[in-house]
Write a structure and sequence with these properties.
By secondary structure, this protein is α/β, with parallel strands linked by helices. Helices cover 35% and strands 22% of the residues.
């Protein structure tokens, strides 16, 4: 059985967001609140739609014609289907208008009207009514500028002009900023695949739009102006999946206290803790920038350059000052100056002036010509000691800006590294700059700006590497987790109405999760142990978070901490430690190195405690003593949630943890014991061996084609499977312990892949040849059906080749409906979960 993409995708995954597809490429548009009154939003909207080629229907209670177009008193009076309704009526009327649209079968609506949550409790209730009345209709807004799709000449906004067509999607919570960016983009000739003003996001949110833009081949990168995150889990889920294929760049405002207050007054939503947002963006593979120039500049850089492999920059310049300026910005941005290899120095000695710097920045001196630049760049491209090049040209009397640009371009075809250019000199170098830009080399007016762009690119590449870096399998846990004991203690405390745990109770909970604790303990010497702090807090946007850093009595004075989002694996635990200043000491600077492996294990166990025990509102382990002998908690403080708070309202993780409820044992028909469980990132090496065990016939049945094991086993492909977002995909693996070898072996994989924007899922199953015919296919398909019920799905479908008679038989036994689809040349197996109870 297969749910994979073929020449023609299945009806389910081929139309994963039919509502958004129709909304943003509509064949018919209705303007509710259309009017001829000069200066009104309804007039501006209708004027802007004159260039649109689809049907436009004004809706006005009193007029039969609006700007020469036939008007209708109600949305339900319009003949035919309406794909997109634009609502520009007073706030108090919007819930009823939305209900009328839903009843009329409108696919989606953009609510321009303001006066909702941003205005206080009365407006918030109006928003709730909109959400209740929309039915299955999708809504963008309210309180937004609208939506613009330039390639379709669709200007469903009240902005005065249509953006230029391009490859950037811009999504913003601020309508006013949209207008400013639009004006700027027209002057700068920057184009957009889509322009989306989302307002307060009563329905369509960041995640919905990111998924939509991921499938839009007109979009190369996604730029976001964010004031608040809304549904954090939806945003992180979408961003983590899409960031590998399309850059997502976010300008998040509200970094300061006053900025956060401005966000609250604008959107009615909390801007949130800025450190937590940094941690969340990092965890999702998103690049965060701080200015509009960086937002659009990095879209250009990431769109033109190959991905960085490291943070070492080589700088070529004909002026020492600009080189030093770039070097300072590089170091301040956490980049590093690349060392020149001996081979590079020897090569350049033969081509350059005797006065060249022989170090990085590589100063060619003021009289450098195009030939010297070309020799330097060619040598540095070949030098393995750097990851990218910044080429700076200053307007000296002997400089050759155009000739140097032409020589640089000749080298571009052979490059495998990003190259940045800074041609200083204004109009004197404008023609050379245009040539470089046209050939894919991003140019900057100033050296420090170029260096900062490189650092942002390095940060982005590092985030992606960390996001899908295969973690090591952690072994040698100090003890098994005693979850039942912890839950008993917490229930008793909650029943007694207590929220503050005693130190003894807090340490018992830590110990139950395998975290070593003592009543009192002191280091033998100051050099042998380091005091740390480990904690849990509840963030209003992202739920439970983990704090780690320097502890002890001076914790508030040092303020050296890093924030992570649970759950953590070994890689994420290590990255969390590396983001603190005290990590240098932990790693052995000036003192014995602590047992970092033990500390990683402790962090992982602590993240499990944070993820699983939602009744614990706050934890402080301070000090946590780290030494060469391990890590141990000396003191602990815990607070519970209010005893009267309903369990359903407890704060949830922004990233869904490993679904342990789907782990179970089973026996094959021949008696072989196996474990069936959701996949983990640590399973990548086992998956490689699994794919190599598949015959050509089995691969053909699963993938509807013949693929080599090497193709199936690339890291880029396996991360899509092993690094599951359990909210969107559950991949069950069946593993056994090989007799006499005490090694795990995967013998089958079954996946349940939820559709974006729908309550359906596709299934696929593949079983290693040696383990077919032992009842595993029926068992796994039955498990996927059961999981679908637990996850609240409506429908499950899969696709089966006509020659795969065994899987067809299994589907019939489990009461799947089978239908042959000639266009797919395959059977579609469908199971309606609601119908089967």
């Amino acid at each position: 059985m297969s749910g994979s993409r073929r020449k023609r995708e299945s009806n389910l995954l081929g139309h994963r967001r039919p509502a958004l597809d129709s909304m943003f490429a509509p064949e018919s548009v209705a303007v509710i609140g259309a009017t001829e009154r000069p200066g009104s939003v309804g007039r501006a909207l209708l004027d802007n739609l004159k260039s649109y080629h689809g049907a436009v229907y004004p809706v006005n209670l009193k007029r039969h014609l609006v700007l020469g177009l036939p008007a209708f008193p109600k949305i339900g009076a319009i003949p035919g289907h309406v794909d997109l309704a634009i609502v520009a009526t007073p706030a108090e009327t919007v819930p009823d208008v939305v209900q009328e649209c839903a009843a009329a079968g409108v696919t989606g609506a953009v609510v321009i009207s303001a006066g909702f949550r941003e205005c206080g409790p009365v407006g918030a209730k109006l928003e709730e009514a909109i959400a209740t009345n929309r039915g299955r209709m999708r809504i963008v807004g309210p309180n937004c500028l609208g939506v613009m799709i330039p390639r379709l000449s669709l200007n469903a906004t009240f902005a005065p002009c249509l953006a230029k067509d391009g490859r950037i999607a811009f999504v913003s919570q601020s309508g006013a900023l949209c207008s400013s960016v639009l004006d700027w983009s027209v002057r700068e000739q920057i184009g957009f695949s889509g322009f989306f003003s989302v307002g307060s996001m009563v329905d369509v949110n960041w995640g919905d739009l990111i998924y939509y833009l991921a499938d839009d081949w007109h979009t190369a990168s996604v730029l976001i102006y964010m004031e608040s995150v809304g549904d954090a889990r939806s945003f992180l889920s979408a961003a983590r999946e899409v960031a590998l294929t399309k850059p997502i760049i976010v300008l998040k405002v509200g970094r300061t206290k006053l900025g956060a207050q401005a966000v609250m007054s604008h959107t009615g939503a909390s801007a949130g803790n800025d450190e937590v947002f940094d941690a969340a963006f990092r965890r999702a593979g998103v690049l965060r920038v701080n200015t509009l120039d960086e937002l659009f500049g990095m879209a250009e850089v990431l769109g033109k350059q190959p991905r960085l492999l490291g943070s070492r920059l080589a700088i070529v310049t004909n002026g020492g000052g600009p080189g030093a300026l770039a070097a300072d910005a590089l170091i301040e941005g956490d980049g590093s100056l690349a060392d020149l290899s001996d081979q590079t120095i020897q090569t350049l000695n033969d081509f350059l002036s005797p006065f060249w710097s022989r170090s990085n920045p590589l100063d060619l001196v003021g009289d450098a010509k195009a030939d010297q630049y070309a020799a330097a760049v060619e040598a540095l491209i070949k030098d393995p000691n750097n990851d990218a090049l910044l080429v700076i040209l200053t307007p000296q009397a002997t400089a050759e800006p155009m000739a140097t640009a032409e020589r640089l371009i000749l080298l571009i075809s052979t490059r495998q590294k990003p190259i940045f250019a800074c041609w200083m000199g204004g109009m004197a170098v404008a023609e050379a700059e245009s040539l470089l830009n046209a050939c894919g080399v991003p140019t900057f007016a100033h050296p420090d700006a170029a260096a900062r762009a490189f650092c942002l690119m390095a940060q982005y590449s590092n985030n992606l590497r960390a996001l899908y870096e295969t973690p090591v399998v952690v072994t040698g846990w100090p003890a098994e987790i005693r979850r039942e004991r912890v839950e008993t203690v917490l229930r008793e405390l909650r029943g007694a109405g207590r929220t503050l745990l005693t130190e003894l109770e807090a340490k018992e909970i830590l110990s139950s999760y395998g975290i070593p604790v003592v009543e009192t303990r002191s280091a033998k010497s100051e050099e042998q142990a380091i005091e740390l702090i480990l904690g849990k807090r509840i963030d209003p946007n992202f739920g439970p978070i983990i704090l780690f850093g320097a502890g002890g009595q001076l914790v508030d004075a040092w303020r050296d901490r890093a924030i992570g989002l649970p759950p953590l694996n070994a890689t994420q635990a290590k990255r969390l430690m590396e983001r603190t200043r005290i990590y240098v000491a932990l790693n052995g600077a000036g003192r014995p190195q602590v047992d970092l492996a033990a500390l990683e294990k402790l962090l992982i166990r602590f993240s499990q405690l944070v993820a699983e025990q939602a009744l614990i509102r706050e934890i402080d382990v301070n000090p946590l003593l780290a030494s060469p002998r391990g890590a141990i908690a000396l003191d602990a403080r815990m607070l519970l949630t209010d005893p009267h708070q309903p369990s359903a309202s407890l704060s949830k993780l922004a990233i869904r943890p490993y679904p342990t409820q789907y782990v179970h044992g089973w026996k094959l028909a021949d008696g072989t014991p196996v474990t069936i469980r959701p996949i983990r990132p640590e399973d990548e090496s086992l998956m490689i061996s699994f794919h190599r065990s598949l015959s050509e016939e089995t691969v053909h049945m699963r993938y509807f084609g013949f693929l080599k094991a090497d193709t199936l086993s690339t890291h880029e492909r396996l991360v899509r499977i092993c690094f599951s977002d359990y909210d969107r995909e559950i991949a069950l693996i069946t593993e056994r312990i090989q007799p006499g070898r005490d090694e795990r072996q995967i013998i089958a994989v079954a996946r349940l892949i939820k559709a974006h924007g729908a309550n359906d899922a596709e299934v696929d199953i593949v079983i290693s040849d040696a383990w077919q015919g032992k009842g595993l296919g029926k068992k796994l398909l039955g498990d996927l059906v059961a999981i679908g019920r637990t996850e609240g799905l409506d429908r499950i479908v899969g696709h089966i080749l006509p020659e795969n008679e065994i899987m067809q038989h299994i589907c019939r036994k489990l009461e799947f409906a089978l239908r042959y689809d000639p266009s797919e040349e395959a059977f579609e197996a469908e199971f309606e979960l609601r119908r089967h109870g």
